[in-house]
Amino acid sequence: MTTPTLTPSIAELGHVGLRCHDVSRQLAFYTEVLGLTVTDHDERLGIWFLSARPDTEHHELLLAEGRDAPVGSRLIQQVSFRCARFEDVLGFHRRFREHDVRLDMIVSHGNAVGVYFYDPEGNRCEVYWRTGLVARQPFVEHIDIETDPEKLLDAIRASVERHGATGFTEESYRAWTREQAVAADVAADGATAKEVGR
User: Fold this and answer.
1) What is the Cα gyration radius of the chain?
2) 156, 129 in Cβ contact below 8 A?
3) Residue 14, class by beta-carbon neighbours within 10 Å (0-12 exposed, 13-18 middle, 19+ buried)?
4) Residue 32: its pLDDT value, please?
5) What is the pLDDT of residue 179?
6) Which of 11, 116, 128, 189 has the most CB atoms around it within 10 Å of its CB?
7) Other C-beta atoms lying within 10 Å of the C-beta of residue 70
8) How far, in Å, CA of 197 to CA of 17, rounded?
């Protein structure tokens, strides 16, 4: 008698590994600015393990030597870090300003508030807090995070009441998305032309 095969399922995303040009610079950023904890490392192999929850998750981010793509190459769309409280997102925004971290966008996703930023090697990241609201995605509405927090959350709730069922994207975000696609096509055409010219 054979045991029925169960459909496998993923419990959760465990960790992401990033190859780096300068591991020590990246390590300083992720520990000093984001506050992650180094749980293990092997200098001979050039790898470092980091976690926001070292007691429950050995590592959520791995930094490794050996990046060979130039800075500015679009390899990663985003790496996101969830915060337990809205105040944490506000605190990170202040910390990013203090450390001259390059910001991308600060938005409401309806179901979350996110601050998008770049690490020292240009990887796009996000810190976010879940609002508890239900909103169809994509939902991208730029917000002024320096607004009084209660007024900001009231505005987000009102926006979700209006657009939560259908989703919402501002024209500036749609234009940005189109620009990314065009730039990727141009880069791909350039790479193909180089290959043909060999």
Assistant:
1) 20
2) no
3) exposed
4) 98
5) 81
6) 128
7) 8
8) 34
* Contact criterion met (CB below 8 Å) for 168 and 156: no
32, with CB counted inside 10 A (0-12, 13-18, 19+), is: exposed
**How many other C-beta atoms lie within 10 A of the C-beta of residue 2?**
4
20, β-bridge pairs: 65
pLDDT per position as a tens digit, 142-168: 999 999 999 999 999 999 999 999 999
Pairing mode, strands 103-108 and 112-118: antiparallel
Q: Give the pair of three-digit tokens for residue 131.
A: 């609002």
Q: How many residues does the chain have?
A: 198
Would you call 127 exposed, middle or buried from its count of C-beta atoms within 10 A (0-12, 13-18, 19+)? Answer: buried
Report d(CA 123, CA 74) in Å as an integer: 8
